[in-house]
Design goal:
Length: about 90
Amino acid sequence: MSDQQTKTEGQIMRDLVQYISEALVDKPDEVKVHVVEGENSIILELKVAADDVGKVIGKGGQTAKAMRKILSAAATKLRKKSLLQIVE
């Protein structure tokens, strides 16, 4: 069985958020993603260093909006809804 098949849907979504976030911030080792999986939804809480919050939100929230759109597309494939919360 491949690595992809053994991961849960929440882990796949967490890895996606982790990968994108680490590429955006100055302190990638401080990126933490907590997943809460429901029957029909996946909630992802993204925590980054205080200095990096602006980088994951972006100008006018454009970066966060783009990340949410990518997550929504991935969640739709899994027949679930996704919610990304950026917490400090």
